[in-house]
Amino acid sequence: MISIAIRYKQCYTDSMKFKVLQENLRKTLWHRIEEEGLTGLRLAEQTGFKQAHISNFLNRKRGLILGAEDQIIFG
User: Fold this and answer.
1) 3 state SS of 17
2) What is the pTM of this model?
3) Contact by Cβ (8 Å): 42, 32
4) Which residues contact 57 (CB under 8 A, 6 or more apart)?
5) Consecutive 10-residue runs of the chain (75 residues): their mean pLDDT?
């Protein structure tokens, strides 16, 4: 019983960290769009994602899959 509780807590913690990571990335991208002139289209070209996917992520309609952050950050 204890091991199940520990596994559940670990999954919950990892999931929450991933959501925080995505939110921080979203805020950083919005800052670059507003302050530095980055566009969703340019970001899509740099990362290989479709512009619609970038738009959905920025507008909180959808999240990213695990690992996609690296593609956006390091493009």
Assistant:
1) helix
2) 0.64
3) no
4) 22, 26, 63, 64
5) 46 66 88 89 87 90 66 58
